[in-house]
């Protein structure tokens, strides 16, 4: 029945930037629920979007991430995007690479003006068939 009504879903909370925990400054991706939902979605012809690899809005960034010095933040960002896109290459049809870029600038402020482009370039290299986007909200 679900396959007849729904054509797309997102990873929701399981694939959001808030889905990781502190681990000595490293990002530890906990996406087992998302991994286990791919067979069900596929069986019903439902495509999956990757939601919110990163989120620029300050109140959406975990405190332990905010506390990282720039070099450790860069390593955490690199780890998250590499783990996520290597693990799910070809499974997510779309990725919201950096959510809320019109309303926040946490990563850009901490990592420099080229941080956003680097996120998109890395995502494109790791999963070249996925459509990458940055959603917009009405201002």
Could you characterize what this model shows?
This protein is α/β, with parallel strands linked by helices. It has one domain (2-133): Alpha-Beta Barrel (TIM Barrel), CATH 3.20.20. Helices cover 40% and strands 19% of the residues. It contains 6 helices and 8 strands. The strands form 3 sheets. A 4-stranded parallel beta sheet has the order 1-4-6-8, covered by helices on one side. A hairpin with a 2-residue loop joins strand 2 (20-23) and strand 3 (26-29). Helix 4 (70-87) packs parallel to helix 6. The N and C termini lie far apart (37 Å).
Strand content: 15-25%
Shape descriptor: elongated
Mean pLDDT: 79
Radius of gyration: 15 Å
Report the total helices: 6
Please identify, by name, the CATH architecture. Alpha-Beta Barrel
Low-confidence stretches: 24-30
- Helical proportion, percent range: 40-55%
> Oligomerization state of this entry?
single chain
Topology:
Elements: H1 2-5, E1 8-10, E2 20-23, E3 26-29, H2 32-43, E4 47-50, E5 54-55, H3 63-66, H4 70-87, E6 92-96, E7 98-99, H5 106-111, H6 115-126, E8 131-133
Parallel strand pairs: 1-4, 4-6, 5-7, 6-8
Antiparallel strand pairs: 2-3
